[in-house]
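Subject: Sanity check before I submit

Could someone independently write out the structure tokens for this chain? I want to compare against mine line by line before I put it in a report. The sequence has 235 residues.
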Amino acid sequence: MFGFGKKQSYLIGVDLGNDCLKLAQLANGTEETYLMAGQCVGRPADVVPGTARWQRWAIEVMRETTANGHFKGRDVVAALPANEVFIDHLKWPKKFDGKIEDALFAKIRQKLPFEPIEKNTLIKYIPAEQDNLIVLATERTVIDHHLAIYERAGLAIIESDLIGVELPDDGQPLLRICTALLQAEVNIIQAYPILVRPRGRPAVALMVDNTEMGLETLGSKGFTMITEGDLDANA
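---
Independent answer below. Compare away.
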């Protein structure tokens, strides 16, 4: 992660796993990004993961931890425990009627580690190279349970927009992108590689603290943006 100039705290990152609960929050100093607050609390041995008692334990820990004065704000980004998400690599379906998610469900239903009920299965997919897909699936009830935990703990899940941008033909393409943003005092929070190449060039997805300014800055510097339409067309 990168910081530039102004002081600012980021969202609270929450990792609610079966064995422990982790919270962390970064902030920008005058010259660098630093860990402003962090906490890791182990699950008591007599608390069984996934139970109502486990949920109450998680809610209590979140409330106490975020109220201790070290963390700023109540907005969080979070992830599901790894054991709650099914991941598979598939070929793009050649023929299907209706939505692509229906075709993907038919392909993975026998592999799912939970009861394969389509209405209760949330499916997301990421186009990869050579007509491949990365498919992620989880139960909607699991998501509802986790959202309820955060809500009862007084926290709000935030969905962040990403900026997709092609890497320029340069010896240090990522450095050029980062430099352009940081010179405009746009802070880069996270960066991810984009597996597909809509125009045959590598690309990255960036989470920044000011999406509108980031898009304007990169556009004015001549960088090529990647849109959802580009990804869908490539798929």
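---
OP: Matches mine. For the report I'm noting this point. The chain has three domains: 12-81+143-157, 82-139, 163-234.
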